[in-house]
């Protein structure tokens, strides 16, 4: 998927199947992942939508931190960079992100991990 700005520039924002719909708003994980990866205490981050009774999907970030990183600090950092509906509702800390055989982040495995950790009924 792509978007075009007022000057006519086109930007790739992500894949349609990865788009998160939360509270009727479209959220592209790539944007959130970019800002999270800019944080000095984050080694790696991945964002997906998990089922949510209220919002449809909840923006959920999986974080590999370089050290101790408080959830409140992360939320405050995101508030400075993202619209409120894009701020992850859940942060799940992992020692490493699961990867496929070709080295891509395995988002299906992340979803299963997130559902299990947050005890969401699937």
Mind explaining what this structure looks like?
Strand 1 (2-4) and strand 2 (10-12) form a beta hairpin. The longest helix is centred in the last third of the chain and has 12 residues, at 107-118. This protein is 27% helix and 30% strand. It has one domain (2-118): GMP Synthetase, Chain A, domain 3, CATH 3.30.300. The strands form 3 sheets. The chain has a 3-stranded mixed beta sheet, with helices on both faces. It is an alpha+beta fold and 122 residues long.
Task: Name a few traits of the molecule.
122 residues, alpha+beta, GMP Synthetase, Chain A, domain 3, 3 helices, 30% strand, globular
Concise account of the structure shown:
Belongs to the ATP-dependent AMP-binding enzyme family. The protein is α+β, with helices and mostly antiparallel strands and 122 residues long.
């Amino acid at each position: 998927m792509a978007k075009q700005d007022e000057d006519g520039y086109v930007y790739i924002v992500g894949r349609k199947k990865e788009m998160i719909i939360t509270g009727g708003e479209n959220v592209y994980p790539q944007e959130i992942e970019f800002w999270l990866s800019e944080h000095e205490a984050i080694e790696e981050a991945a964002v997906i939508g998990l089922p949510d009774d209220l919002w449809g999907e909840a923006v959920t970030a999986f974080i590999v931190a370089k050290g101790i990183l408080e959830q409140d600090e992360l939320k405050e950092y995101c508030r400075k960079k993202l619209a409120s509906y894009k701020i992850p509702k859940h942060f799940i800390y992992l020692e490493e992100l699961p990867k496929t055989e070709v080295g891509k982040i395995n988002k299906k495995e992340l979803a299963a991990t997130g559902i299990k950790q947050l005890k969401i009924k699937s």
